[in-house]
Amino acid sequence: MKFNPKIYYSIVAIGFCMFIAITVLRNRTATAKWEQTELFGQINDIALKKNDKGIYMNINNNWYGFSYDRIFEEKSFKMYYLIKYKGEKIFWIKRTPTSTDSVSFWSGASFIVTDTNEIKMIEKGILK
């Protein structure tokens, strides 16, 4: 039985297209879910991950990861309040929950840190 290269390349191309489609759809689902999440709480601790340009914040005893923003190198927002409204991509930082002055930042990669090893490294200060 002779191997037909057209069939082989067709199967590889279809498999690659399916991989791309699944990856894009999974990413859109996670992004849409995060946009519908509300977040409100006092920032108990902040860790900057300089090499990968990431920021970790302990809010309501949960660690959250954010993409880098230079405002966190310019000023410490420890004990401020972080607020994310449902349907928005922007995060707000306020000194008190009712204050009218606030700082906003956008994070392209926002997530809840669930890996226990990563949490231990953050708490030990390895990522600072």
What would you note in describing this structure?
This protein is of the alpha+beta class and 128 residues long. Helix content is 34%, strand content 30%. A seven-stranded antiparallel sheet has the order 6-5-4-1-2-3-7. The model has no long low-confidence stretch (mean pLDDT 82).
Topology:
Layout: H1 5-35, E1 39-49, E2 54-59, E3 62-67, H2 71-74, E4 81-84, E5 90-94, E6 102-106, E7 111-112, H3 116-124
Antiparallel strand pairs: 1-2, 1-4, 2-3, 3-7, 4-5, 5-6
Strand order of the largest sheet: 6-5-4-1-2-3-7
Low-confidence stretches: none
Shape: elongated
The tally of strands reads 7
What structural category do the secondary elements indicate?
A: alpha+beta
Radius of gyration: 20 Å
Give the helix proportion (percent range): 25-40%
Can you give me a brief rundown of this structure?
With 128 residues, the protein is of the alpha+beta class. The chain has helices spanning 5-35, 71-74, 116-124; strands at 39-49, 54-59, 62-67, 81-84, 90-94, 102-106, 111-112.
